Each structure stands twice: as C-alpha cells, then as structure tokens.
Prior knowledge:
By secondary structure, the chain is α/β, with parallel strands linked by helices. The chain is built from 23 helices and 17 strands. The chain has helices spanning 5-16, 31-38, 51-65, 77-80, 83-92, 139-157, 201-212, 228-241, 263-266, 272-278, 293-301, 332-350, 359-380, 388-398, 411-419, 441-450, 462-467, 493-496, 498-501, 506-511, 519-524, 535-545, 561-579, and strands spanning 21-24, 44-47, 69-73, 96-102, 129-131, 164-169, 217-221, 245-247, 282-286, 306-311, 326-329, 404-407, 428-431, 456-461, 481-487, 528-532, 553-558. Helix 8 (228-241) packs parallel to helix 12. The longest helix has 22 residues, at 359-380. The radius of gyration is 26 Å and the shape is globular. GO terms for molecular function: 2-succinyl-5-enolpyruvyl-6-hydroxy-3-cyclohexene-1-carboxylic-acid synthase activity. InterPro entries: DHS-like_NAD/FAD-binding_dom, MenaQ_synth_MenD, MenD_middle, THDP-binding, Thiamin_PyroP_enz_TPP-bd_dom. It catalyses: isochorismate + 2-oxoglutarate + H(+) = 5-enolpyruvoyl-6-hydroxy-2-succinyl-cyclohex-3-ene-1-carboxylate + CO2. Pfam families: TPP_enzyme_M_2, TPP_enzyme_N. Residues 205-405 form the Menaquinone biosynthesis protein MenD middle domain.
Amino acid sequence: MPVLQPIVNIAELLYQKGITDVVVAPGSRSAPLTLAVARHPHLRVRVVADERSAGFIALGMAQQSQNPVALICTSGSAVYNLAPAVVEAYFQQVPLLLLTADRPHEWLHQQDGQTIDQATIFGTHVKRSYDLPADYSHPDARWFIERSVNEAINLCRLPAPGPVHINVPLREPFYPTAEESFRAERVRVLDTLPAQPTLSTDTWHKLLNEWDQSERTLLAVGQIPYDPALLAILRKISEELGVPVVGEITASMAHNDQFITHTDTFLAGIDATNAEALRPDLLITLGNSFLTRNLKTYFRQYPARRHWHIHPTVDRINDSFQSLTTLVPSEPRPFLDKLFADLDYQRFLQGDDADQNDTFLNRWQTADRQAAKLVRQTVSGTDRRLTDWSAVQQVLDHLPAQSVLHLANSMPVRYANLCGIDEQQHIQVWANRGVSGIDGCLSTAVGTALLTDQIVTLVVGDVAFFYDRNALWSNPVPPNLRIVLLNNDGGHIFRIIDGPSRQPELERYFETPHGYTARNTAEDARLDYQVCTSLETIQTLLPDFFTRSERAKLLEVTTDKYVNQEQFAAYKAQCRQVFQ
C-alpha cells in the first residue's frame, strides 16, 4: 500500500457519500489532499488562492446546493483565514467539510514553518473537530481515518447542518513519483439515518389547546432558505385561520396581499396603545436570525404570553425575544402542515368556518400597507436624485424572475428589506446574517453563481466590495454574476446610526472615506463595467444589465452620502409622524 493511500481514499469517500464539489486553496503541505481530489474523475474542483475568499465561495456553493462542499487548505495561518466563513456557516447552519493539512504534531513549538496548534482551531464554531493520525502502518489507523471521515460527512448533514473540521497531519514525501499509483481503493460507506422527531398525542393535544386558548396568534419567520411549499402553507394559515404572518426579505418573504413585510417601518417608535393592539397571545417563530432591530425590540418589550419556536434540533434554547415557552423539535414545514390540517378539521367538526375573527390580522395588515405606501413615497417621490435606497428599489424592480439575490451586510440588506420584492418574481434571497459581517459577501455570491445557471445579483456597498475583491481573483468569474456596487465613498451605515452620526470623529474613524472606484478591479477581473450617477441612467441601464452575456457584469452606482443621509432622516421623521 502506498504511504498516503488512506488520504487518497478520502477523495473517493467524498464522492461515494454524495459530495461533488471541492474548493482548494493551493499549498504544499496539502498536496496529497489536493492531488487526490484533482485526479478523481467525478469531483468538481475549483481553485481559489485566498483562503478567506475560498471559505466564503464554498459557503455560497453549499447554500445553493444544500449539500456539503469540501474545502482544502494548507497548514498554519492559512487555516485561520477560513475562520470568518466557518463561523458564518455555523450560525447560518450551512454544511461545510473542512480538510486542513497539518504538520505532524511532534513538530509543534519546534520553530518549524507553518506549524500552529490547529487540531481544534475553530473551537465551538464547528459541530465537531477530528484529528487524523499521521502514521498509517497499523490497520486500526486506516480504519479510524475511514470511520472519522464517514462520521464527519454525516454530521455535516444531520440537523442542524453546519461545518465540520478534519485536521490532517501529513508526513513527507507529499508527491507521488511517476511510477506510483495515485488511485483510490474501495472504501466503506457508513451512513447515519436522520431521526424524525414525533410528538406524542398528549403533547400535540397540549399544543392544540394552547392554540385554542389564544385569541391572537402570530407567526414570525426568520432567515430560512427559499421554500415555495413553506410559503404556501404559511399563506394558507394566514388566509384561512386569520393569522398574521410576519417576515423579512432574508426569509424570502415577498410582497403580496397577505404577508406582513414592513415591520421595520411601522414598528419604529410605535406608541404603547398601538403596540398593545398588535401584541399576540401566542407567537410562533421559525427560521434563524431576524434582521431588523425594530422587530426584535418590539417582541422583547411586548412579549407574547406563549411563544413556540419550531426547530429540528433542541440542543440549544433559542430565546431571542426573551419570551420562549416551548421549543418544538420539528422541521417547520411538516409541523405547520399537520397543525393546519388538524385545526382545519377541528373547525369543520365545530362548524365555525364562517365565524373567523380577522380583526387582529387586519390590524397588522393595515399597518403594513401604510408602511409600504410610506416607503414607496420616500424612494419614488418628487425628489429625483439618485440615492443608495432609490438605486436598490430600481434593482429589485428589474430583477429577472426566478433569479437569485444576494444582499451584502450593512445598508444594502436593510434597504432591500425596506423595499421588498414582488411575490410574482419568485426570487431566492440570501444574506450572510449568521454573524452579519461584511467580509465574504462578494465571495459568497460568486460561490452561488458557480452552482446555478440563474442570474445571481449581488447588491453590495463599497467597503464590503473592496474588502473582498479577491473573490474575483480566481478566473473565470461566472458569467451569470451581476454586481451592483453602491459607492458612497465610505461606511454609509455609520451616518445612519444615531450614535456615530453625532460624533465629530464620524468621517475619519467610522466612515473611512477611500476615493476608490471599481473600474480597475472590473478590468482586472474581465467584467463588463458601467457606472451611473443619476436615477434616469440606472433605469436605462438595468434592462440590458440583466440580460445574459459571456461575461459577468458590474454596475457601479455613485451616490452622495449627504443626500443618502438626508433621505433617510426624512423617512424616519415620516415614520414618527405616521405611526406614533
């Protein structure tokens, strides 16, 4: 058996367990892993030189495929550069399999290059860490490696999905000679079947009784992958049971005549009388994090008497609104399907279909419609100056149907949430709201574009774009990628937030003006590049911008930060006037 045969076999095991995509950040110590996947006939391997960017590209690929993506890098500081993507994957529950090459552990603290303590480097931000042996002479070592890789891949997928780390110490020689075989042996596949939690009859009746005892019930949806079937059952519950369904753009909640999507506007500074009128008796939440502070603050200040959170795993209690009473161990869609079926049958038996009281639903929907009108007046009024906000509204209005939208953190995701998208567009929406950093937003969108033929649009601010432009280093950039860069020459969000906006140090220490444009970056990456400075120009450019082409496209929208600030201040003043 060749010395590195157990490492070569890892590539075959990836394939046998359904992993088809691998991202490699080049290095020498990781050569055996790289050669194993590169020479495997059924693995798609993409090379990304920057480890931080590689991590986020793998994240975007895994988001889109909902399947683990393997990520390989060399030893030392390279491993630490994966950390931002790892923590985002952990809190967003995205499956990544991290394969990090390492020196044999006896060389730690011996002044050997690229040698750090990396066996548990990601700490509690991975589901589990595995440390493989560096010597394979005993059969038990080879058995341990095969068992560990099987277990790690299974763990990536099991609820809740997430990143898993395999540290791989490797001895020289790394590279096979021309005479040596570098082919995988037959591997043993070990599967772990996912458990399906089933609520007992008594428990289910207890939940139904709590529903019956609650005159005002509300459903709130946090960040969750786009699922038309889930949206359909949510709409049915709202229409037929009179339940307000609240969501944000990060839950792919689109504008329609039923869902409530403008809470950030009408809950801003809401007075006590109106707040009490909107308070539910029973709050049901599902999904991950919520985007807007106003929504979170409202439910903390006006907690429901009962609060169910639906989530497939119960190892941690998620009590974000500080009102949780019951954690329901279930996937959201099956739970809601059964809940609606049982409640609908119960109503049929009781003959009270026509007696539904929609007063509570109407209160939420009326406030939402007022808020939608206010937002439209803000961005489509008589002021025809181009702003970040009006640019985002134009982009969302022109998005191709059934395309993918990525929203960078800071102001782009907030502007998009205020604007919203139309239900008829059927848009998948993604945003890195696990830890909400600006690092990796561009790389994540690139990763998504690699795994879909649909147009993928990224709306990104200038600081996040320039921070992550190594995402465009590894050519070719997928031609279905569309980048809308909002360039206001600094961190615009600090001019919007009350605290820093009042400080004399705002511009130098918070906004950090830079004077850069994306022209040279676009030229280096071979992107089609256009720039606009007026509302009329962006309206003219967008239809062609979204047409298919042989190269990715970048549209740089140049705005004045003072005009942006003026528009947002006027909007907040209107909110106080209308909703207080």
